Amino acid sequence: MDLKVLADIAKYEKRFDAAIKLANSFKCSYFIPFIIDPEIGVLLPAPGFPQTIPNGDVWNSFLQSTLTKKYYSDRLPYPDLENIQPATGFAGPEGSVMVMLGGRPKPREVAPLLDLFPLLVQLFTQEQAFKTAEVRVELADKSAAKAEKLANTIDLMRLKLKELLVRQKRDKNDIEVLMEKKDEFMNVASHELKTPIASMKAYLQILNTKLTSVNDEGIIDLFNRANKQVDKITVLVNELLDVTKIQAGKMEYDSAVFDISELLQEVVTQVQVTAQSHHINVEKNPSVLVEGDRHRLDQVINNLLSNSIKYSPNADKVIVCSTLADDQVKVVIKDFGMGIPEDQHKLIFDRFFRVSETSHRYSGLGLGLYISAEIIKRHHGQIGLESSEKGSEFYFTLPVHRPDRARDKKG
Which residue, among 330, 332, 357, 329, has the nearest Cα to 343 in the 3D structure? Predict the structure, then answer.
């Protein structure tokens, strides 16, 4: 063997060309050593040799057969699939394999090379370990750079978040001040409006007595329209007043024990008088005593019933029922209207909220349900809805009055 060729094999940049010369000295075309990659536990060409081989499955089968038989011959594609060459494999130390391509030398013919092969395997293994360490160091450097960049980004985000929180807190305080001023304005405006509205109502009542002797249906119709508009304004003003009282925590409740079924029937009768387009059907209404403000609960039922009629213009009925379960009475008002989108269910009881699909068609401030929810909450009950394209069900629950419970509260 040429010692210069062996010396060049030890040099990474000259290795592959020197290996070809070494193979030629044994009347072969290529000499390729394989060692185990410790990272993946697979035989791969040693450092300095082409790492891509054609038809890896055939090569892998050849290498495994060589390890099993220590010496093995077959045919392999190299350097591409079109070139099929004779191949001989020799098992080496530490699971390595020496492959000679382009010939079939016997072990005794390559004995000098086999004697030196353990030294070459040791050299290749050290190079492989060194390169693996280099790669790891490079990855570690890149990871450290990324970590540093990420840390800087996090610090920047933390500063921006802190600024945002400070700004948000300042904006929140500004909003609270504006809301207080708005509530104060609403309170003053509502009180100022009550007097002229009351006067208008009184004048209309006087005018009504004068119209009893008038047979002009046009004038009577105009009077009725004016009277309805004043009633609407009265409801809006009262809602604004209630909201300002709720916001200030000054809503007063006159508590008493009464039969919720009687109140429910009374409100249904009152609303039915003006609701000529719908029939209000009371399906269940058991007698149940509750404790609370009768007037305020009247307001809740009236609001829910009026909404059910208002928002179901193409229907002709509304169903009302109450049920008793687990010391709770549940009142349900069901309409057959347009329904409420599911993504707006959680917002429906918010102050000034109105369903976007209907807000342009129906008047109102979006306060009725907010006030109703606050009243039910103060009565230790719950309010909610279930809705679909076929209509909506609004409901509220109230605790059933128990004399022993009342005594416990007093105690």
Answer: 357
User: Is residue 6 classed exposed, middle or buried when 0-12, 13-18 and 19+ CB atoms within 10 A define those classes?
Assistant: middle
Coil, strand, or helix at residue 249? coil
Q: What is the rounded distance in angstroms from the CA atom of residue 351 to the CA atom of residue 328?
A: 27
Provide CATH 3.30.565.10 ranges for the chain. 256-410
Pairing of β 382-388 and β 391-399: antiparallel
Give kind and range of the element (H or E) at residue 372.
helix 368-378
Contact (CB, 8 A) for 308 and 334: yes
CA distance linking residue 341 with residue 311, whole number of Å? 14
* pLDDT band (50, 70, 90) for residue 362: low
For residue 191, what pLDDT band results from cuts at 50, 70 and 90? low
**Cα gap 393→385, rounded to integer Å:** 5
What does pTM read for this prediction? 0.50
SS3 248: helix
Averaged over 314-331, what is the pLDDT?
93
How far is the C-alpha of 17 from the C-alpha of 295, rounded, in Å? 103
CATH number of 256-410: 3.30.565.10
63 in Cβ contact with 76 (< 8 Å): no
d(CA 4, CA 211): 130
Integer CA distances (angstroms), 115 to 61, 110, 155, 186, in order: 25, 9, 61, 102
Return d(Cα 214, Cα 377) in angstroms, integer: 49
Residue 333: is its pLDDT beyond 90? yes
